[in-house]
């Protein structure tokens, strides 16, 4: 079954109420944060809180990911030690810059899995790229470990590194988004776009989601439950798309029976890549439990 990662909701790891309720809003993944939404003074308390939340709450079918602090910070190692033991589906590495960063995290996770008798490879990795260096290395980062399930852009840190700011049309992010997407596709893993920080700008958010869907991303990191519905609406196949995809697949099956490769449907050529895209639409619709009415 196709795994949906349309929405990955950041949840500050120092907020017990948000930690308890994070899955009820319907995001595909919740991404509990120990990094930049937690102040230095609260790092130890938040780590303990998140460990216990993961051991206590039942998040149902929602994918649970924890963003830890980097291994080049004073908090990284203890984060991995605690969080691997709490068994989320994946760990999100922030500010990944080199394939060695991923290898180092992979080796540490392997050590901890061994120490606690967990099957090797249980804990997956999601790597966020948030600097020019990281973007230039994205191809190698995405291929650095069999634990990797996706890579993401972290645009707030990225534009700071570039010495610019974020604009509404996102021109400053276009190259980074494209390189991250190519790296993910070449490695066969997911590509997830960055957060949109103004939760009250619905129109700006909607335009950005349409843009990143058109670029080819699988979904978006988000910071507020109000952003979930918009992303799901844009990323979930519509009734028209589903109906058209069904017709394409039926027409191609008919053509195959007759022994012809290329066919025409409503005046448009239907060939192999178009059939493959139609299959993907149906797989996404099935994963989102959308039925043709
Ligand atoms: C650059 C980066 O690193 S981004 C990643 C780190 N940042 C974060 O994790 C921030 C996450 N988001 C938030 O903390 C908040 O959404 C804010 C501060 C942006 C906005 O807060 P508010 O204005 O209070 O949000 P809002 O009024 O929409 O909240 C509505 C409800 O959703 C809950 N909620 C809001 N955001 C979240 C969230 N990210 N996760 C879970 N629950 C949330 C609130 O607790 C509130 O619940 P309640 O009705 O039971 O009280
Ligand atoms: O990964 C994200 O989208 C959030 C983040 O840390 C950033 O933008 O710097
Ligand atoms: Mg960041």
TrEMBL record:
Protein name according to UniProt: Citrate lyase subunit beta
- Give me the residues that bind Mg(2+), please: 130, 157
Which GO CC terms are listed, alphabetically?
ATP-independent citrate lyase complex; cytoplasm
**Key word Membrane present:** no
Pfam families, per this entry? HpcH_HpaI
User: Family per UniProt?
Assistant: Belongs to the HpcH/HpaI aldolase family. Citrate lyase beta subunit subfamily.
Where is each HpcH/HpaI aldolase/citrate lyase domain found? 6-225
């Amino acid at each position: 079954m196709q795994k949906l990662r349309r929405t990955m909701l950041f949840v500050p790891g120092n907020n017990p109420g948000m930690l308890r309720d994070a899955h009820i809003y319907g995001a595909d993944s919740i991404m509990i944060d120990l990094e930049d939404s937690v102040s230095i003074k609260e790092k130890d308390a938040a780590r303990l809180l998140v460990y216990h939340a993961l051991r206590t709450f039942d998040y149902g079918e929602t994918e649970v990911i924890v963003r830890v602090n980097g291994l080049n910070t004073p908090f990284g190692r203890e984060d991995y030690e605690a969080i691997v033991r709490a068994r989320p589906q994946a760990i999100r590495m922030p500010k990944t810059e080199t394939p060695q960063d991923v290898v180092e995290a992979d080796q540490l996770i392997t050590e901890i899995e061994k120490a606690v008798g967990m099957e090797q490879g249980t804990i997956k990795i999601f790597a966020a790229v948030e600097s020019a260096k990281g973007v230039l290395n994205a191809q190698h980062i995405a291929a650095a470990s069999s634990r990797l399930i996706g890579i993401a852009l972290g645009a707030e840190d990225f534009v700071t590194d570039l010495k610019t700011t974020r604009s509404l049309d996102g021109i400053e992010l276009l190259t980074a988004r494209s390189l991250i997407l190519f790296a993910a596709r070449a490695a066969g893993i997911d590509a997830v776009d960055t957060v949109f920080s103004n939760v009250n700008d619905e129109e700006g958010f909607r335009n950005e989601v349409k843009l990143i869907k058109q670029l080819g991303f699988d979904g978006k990191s988000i910071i507020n439950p109000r952003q979930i519905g918009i992303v799901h609406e844009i990323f979930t196949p519509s009734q028209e798309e589903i109906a058209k995809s069904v017709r394409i697949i039926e027409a191609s099956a008919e053509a195959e029976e007759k022994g012809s490769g290329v066919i025409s449907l409503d005046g448009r050529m239907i060939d192999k890549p178009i059939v493959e895209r139609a299959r993907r639409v149906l797989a996404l619709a099935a994963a989102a439990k959308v039925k043709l009415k």
